[in-house]
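User: Run a structure prediction on this.
Assistant: Running it now.
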Amino acid sequence: MGLSRSATRRLALPMKHWWVVVWIGLLCPGMSLAQGEANEPPVVAQPEKSKTETRTFRTLLGPKAKNAWAKKGFRLRVGYASEYRFSHGVAPEHWVNGLTFEPTYQLDADWALGVQLTYGAAGIGTPQDQQAPFGGLVWNTFLNTQVRLVQHLKLSFGVGIAGILGSPATDREDQEAAFAAQTTALGSRMADVGQKITSCYGYGPAANLNVTYIAPITPYFSVGPLLGVKSQHVQCSESGLTGSVNLETGRPIDMWQWWGHTSPYAGFYMVWR
């Protein structure tokens, strides 16, 4: 049943009120949008990472070990190395096997300082019916500087002191010549050219260069190979072991001889941080 004309006229809005309805319709979407923006979580600005934090090593553990081996702090490296000593002149050539201990301090992601202590033995494993070229103990102490070349590869170089305590291979003729030289010498002196000394105790300057590859297993433990070369020049004293004296005067006699070696070496090490 339709409305009468008078009822329709009463429901109709006057023209002057239609603009209010239009403005309400325009404002409602804007109010909804503003309300939605107000409900969104605030954006927190991320702090910028420092140079040390962004320069990291790739590791076998991925994110768990990120930055671990690039951070400052102490490291301890323990390893095994084998070297062959090439002679400069009269020094005997021989193999040396030994252990290396190297405490280091990582300054930043690229640089570190360390003290390398190496102790080795020569002549071990030689058959009883053979005479080793040299038998005894050797040691080195180096102050090293380490620099990172690429991701896991490090270069280390340093200077220090080398020491020797042992005896070269000699025969009866060499021993008799050494005894004759000691009995006729009035005091300590350098050995004659071509003369062999029967023992060596001494120390001298040395230099070291090596390359290592770090392979982290955990954020606190890593392993890796080692390749290097070192050179040393040791002043040997023959009386360091025998305690020889002049038979007439009773004075102690030192028979000196310089032993020079260049030694390439290879090994394997473990590192803790």
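Residues 167 and 199 are 4 Å apart (CA to CA).
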